[in-house]
Amino acid sequence: MSKPKPKFYVVWEGRETGIFNSWDECNKHISGFPQAKYKSFKSLELAREAFRTSPEAYIGKEVFDTSLTPDQLALIGEPELESISVDGAWNTATGDIEYRCVHTRTGELLFAKGPYTDGTNNIAEFLGLVHALAHCTKNGLLSPIYTDSMTAMSWVKRKKAFTKHPRSEWNAVLFDMINRAEQWLATNEPTNKILKWETEAWGEIKADFGRK
C-alpha cells in the first residue's frame, strides 16, 4: 500500500500562524479559536505562496494544486491544446452514467450523451472514448484525444469492454451501446492518438463534469 501524500496546512489566523506539516499540529492552533482561517495544500510551494497572500484568495475557492515537483512538472510538459477531451460521469446515488467531449483549448462542446440507467464510470469513459474516435473518423479529424481513464484506454486498445457489471433489463440500452462500440472498434482502424490526461499536473480534464 502506498503511503499517503503529505499535506501542508496554512494557518492565517489562529493561536499561532504559519505552515504546519500535519493536521494534528494545525488543529492545535485553530481548535476553539474564534474565526480561525486555515487551508490545506498538497505542495509546500503553494502553501508558502498562500501564506504570503490574503486568505480570501484561497478559502472556499477552487485552486489548482499539485504535489508534483517542478522537475516532475517539467518532465510531463503541457497538454496539446489542439485536441479534444472526453470524460464520463457516474451518479453514485442513481447509477446513471453520461459522457461528453469538448475541444481542449476552447471548451466547445462537441457532443454529450446520457444519462443512461445502471452503468459504471468505466463504461461511461469507454463509450465516450469510442464515440470520440468515431466522431473524428466521420469528420476527418486527426486531433489527439485525451482521456483521464487508463481503463478506457486499455479497453479500446483491446477492442472490448471488460466490464463485470451485470446486464439487466434496466441497462439493456447501455449494453447494446457497448456491443455497437465493440463492433465499431473491430471494423475500424482510427489513427487518432489517444493520450492520458495528466490530472495531477494539469488539473481536471477539460470535459470534466465538475461534480467531484
Task: Give an account of the 3D structure.
- The chain is α/β, with parallel strands linked by helices and 212 residues long.
- The chain has seven helices and eight strands; from the N terminus they run E-E-H-E-H-H-E-E-E-H-E-H-H-E-H.
- The strands form two sheets. A five-stranded mixed β-sheet has the order 6-5-4-7-8, covered by helices on one side. A three-stranded antiparallel β-sheet has the order 2-1-3, with helices on both faces.
- Helix 4 (121-139) packs across helix 5 and helix 4 (121-139) packs across helix 6 (172-187).
- The mean pLDDT is 93.
How would you concisely characterize the structure shown here?
The protein has helices at about 25-30, 45-50, 70-75, 120-140, 150-160, 170-185, 200; strands at about 10-15, 20, 35-40, 85-90, 95-105, 110-115, 145, 195.
How are the elements arranged and paired?
Elements: E1 8-13, E2 18-20, H1 23-30, E3 37-41, H2 44-51, H3 70-76, E4 84-90, E5 97-103, E6 109-116, H4 121-139, E7 145-147, H5 150-158, H6 172-187, E8 194-196, H7 199-202
Parallel strand pairs: 4-7, 7-8
Antiparallel strand pairs: 1-2, 1-3, 4-5, 5-6
